[in-house]
C-alpha cells in the first residue's frame, strides 16, 4: 500500500512536469526578469547593442580618418610628380633650344 502511494505521487509529479510550459527568459510581456547583477536582461541587451553601435561608430570614424590621410598623401604625391614632369619638360625644352 505504501509503495502504490509513492508510485501515484511520482506519476502525478511526472505528469505535472510533462504538461508544464517552458518559460523562456524575457518572453512574458511587461515582466522583467532580473539577473544576478541586479539589472534586467532587456537592459543588459540594450546596453550591449548600444555598446556595439558605439564601437562601430568609432571604427567608421577611424576608417574615415585613414582614408582622408590616404587621399592627402596621394594628392601630395601627385603634386610631387607634376613638379617632376615640369622639370623634365624644362630639360627637354632647354635641350631643344641648345640645338
Indicate the topology.
Layout: H1 2-19, H2 41-98
Report on this model:
The protein is built from two helices and no strands. The protein has helices at residues 2-19, 41-98. With 99 residues, the chain is an all-alpha fold. The chain starts with a helix and ends with a helix. The chain has one domain. The longest helix is centred in the C-terminal third of the chain and has 58 residues, at 41-98. The model has no long low-confidence stretch (mean pLDDT 79).
Characterize this entry briefly.
This protein is mostly helical. The protein has helices at residues 2-19, 41-98. The chain contains two helices and no strands.
Question: Characteristics of this structure?
Answer:
mainly alpha, 2 helices, coiled coil, transit peptide, mitochondrion
Amino acid at each position: 500500500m505504501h509503495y502504490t502511494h509513492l508510485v501515484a505521487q511520482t506519476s502525478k509529479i511526472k505528469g505535472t512536469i510533462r504538461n508544464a510550459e517552458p518559460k523562456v527568459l524575457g518572453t512574458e510581456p511587461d515582466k522583467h526578469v532580473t539577473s544576478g547583477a541586479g539589472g534586467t536582461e532587456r537592459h543588459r541587451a540594450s546596453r550591449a547593442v548600444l555598446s556595439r553601435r558605439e564601437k562601430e561608430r568609432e571604427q567608421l570614424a577611424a576608417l574615415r580618418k585613414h582614408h582622408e590621410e590616404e587621399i592627402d598623401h596621394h594628392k601630395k604625391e601627385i603634386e610631387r610628380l607634376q613638379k617632376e614632369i615640369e622639370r623634365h619638360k624644362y630639360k627637354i625644352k632647354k635641350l631643344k633650344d641648345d640645338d
